[in-house]
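#struct-help
A.M.: can someone run this one for me? Single chain, 126 residues.
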Amino acid sequence: MLKKFSSRDGCPTRELFCNNVKISARVADTPEHRLQGLMGVKKLGDNEGCLLDFRFAQPVSLWMRNVPIDLDVAFLDAAGTIVAVDNMLSESNIIYKSPENVRYALEMSKGFFSKHKIEEGDIILL
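D.P.: on it. Structure tokens below:
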């Protein structure tokens, strides 16, 4: 069953900031929550997303199986610096890989980063 984004699944939420833009992110910091990610979520609010915290810098691979909406992802180093931004297609089996070791991946609605002129090199205040 498709659902609206919420933090009722046990994930805490955190306010993040970048370029004077406030982001409300569900924090997925356990293997189970990272695996779930935004699966089944059919709608995100304008500034809502999911911050995947991998606890330490490592190669990260993501996919979009059972995610019914297109997303953008920013791969972040431990300091919150964006090292890459990618577009991810809904319901696909494409593997999206970080270009280098990263600690975080921030998943947002398609077009969020370009709309707010957030790009590689910018810092997400965690």
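A.M.: thanks! The longest strand covers residues 48-58.
D.P.: also worth noting: Residues 16-115 form a domain with the Jelly Rolls fold (CATH 2.60.120.1140).
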